[in-house]
Amino acid sequence: MTAPPASVVAVHRSGSHSFSKFAEDAVTLVPGIGVQGDAHSGTTVQHRSRVARDPSQPNLRQVHLLHAELFDELMEAGFPVWPGELGENLTTRGVDLLALATGTRLHLGESAVVEVTGLRNPCSQIDKFQRGLTAAVLDRDAAGNLVRKAGVMAVVLAGGQVRPGDVIRIEAPAGPLRALEPV
């Protein structure tokens, strides 16, 4: 039996700098900007901590993608967390987001394309949402290196609407592969 194709499970946005985002029937991705109507969209950084450091930095965090498998894992560990509550724009299933290389392109829906820029670095807001949750979205690999499981960040290359149920097509970057690092 073959595995179902990688797909979008849910889409979210929030016009305010809230921690969680709200479920939508569809979101519109805008090239070079992000999710239309989302507080984190823009050509330059929009996350408050990054704006405070240097508001002219390019926004490498236009779209936050998080794998539904993490929610399954968190639920099993006793953390009732649902898609959108960790602030992601797109919840996916069937794609190992954390194993993607920097520069991987994800084709979403009929026309949207995002390019993965790096890992989301879990912040203190996660523990404010649920005590102990930060530790649950961090791990160590066999070599003792820190593993950040809170999803990946991307920029929008081609716009379009993205809906739950949309298939995700993965396009590996050309040249040598670079492992994801926090952005």
UniProtKB/TrEMBL annotation:
Name of one Pfam family that matches: MOSC
Taxonomic superkingdom: Bacteria
SUPFAM superfamilies linked: PK beta-barrel domain-like
Domain MOSC: 21-171
Name this protein carries in UniProt: MOSC domain-containing protein
Native source species: Caenimonas terrae
